Amino acid sequence: MDAASVNLLREMLASTGWIERTRQLGLALRSTRSPGGLLVVGTPEDEPWHLAAHLDEESRFVPQLAPTLVRWSPPPGAPPHLRVGLDRLRHTGRGETLFVVTQAQATVPLLERVDDARRAGATILALDEGDPELDGLAHEVLNVPALRSPLSFDAAQHLVSTAAGADAPPLRPPSPAPDGHVRGGRGFKERLSRFLDVVSGPKVLE
């Protein structure tokens, strides 16, 4: 979903209350004190890659939004930023944020780790479809019920990440190098894309 699509969605939902709800959660993500202290975790079956990529983009202007994607079973050969495992949650503390993103009911192992992070002083945020146990541990929650919400779970993630960086300055194009070529560092989204290409092989167009 590009910026134009997000803006159109915001216009469509302007009178529903959903913009305010997603904005509240998006702004809560800024409670993280330093880059990398925003830990994003999902379930073993559904890791929030897409949301992490969008937060990484927003972190160009709001540094504390730089995410750390926490994975359940990271492959040994993955790049460093894609092999952060659950052990990272043992070192979560004050000034950090654990953002749980899941459409499924949180499992007992996940709830235990969330509870440990909360006890250690981390801020707990949740984006789910309605999970009483997970919501009970979170400081801020956004429920997106599958059957009663006017937007999809994926669309909600776009709105939350956009809201998190909403007050950032406009994007400036990178300056050209002396040879006339525009250069810039690779972000999370590009690194993730390259990694997935290696794992899954080239795409076949039909």
Strands of the widest sheet, in order across it, are 2-1-3-4-5
Average per-residue pLDDT, rounded, comes to 80
| First and last CA, distance | 22 Å
Question: What is the CATH class name?
Answer: Alpha Beta
Q: Describe the main β-sheet briefly.
A: 5 strands, parallel
- Strand composition percent: 5-15%
CATH architecture assignment? 3-Layer(aba) Sandwich
Rg is 17 Å
Overall number of structural domains: 1
| Shape by Cα distribution | globular
- Total count of helical runs of at least 4 residues: 7
Residue stretches low in confidence (pLDDT < 50, at least 5 long) are 168-186, 194-206
CATH topology: Rossmann fold
Helix content: 25-40%
What would your notes on this structure say?
- This protein is of the alpha/beta class and 206 residues long.
- It has a single domain (3-167), classed as Rossmann fold (3-Layer(aba) Sandwich), CATH 3.40.50.
- Helices cover 36% and strands 11% of the residues.
- It has seven helices and five strands.
- It has helices spanning 3-12, 18-28, 49-58, 108-119, 132-137, 153-164, 188-200, and strands at 38-41, 67-70, 97-101, 123-128, 140-143.
- Strands 2-1-3-4-5 form a five-stranded parallel beta sheet, with helices on both faces.
- Helix 2 crosses helix 6 (153-164) and helix 3 (49-58) runs parallel beside helix 6.
- The chain starts with a helix and ends in a 6-residue tail after the last helix.
- Mean pLDDT is 80; it is low at 168-186 and 194-206.
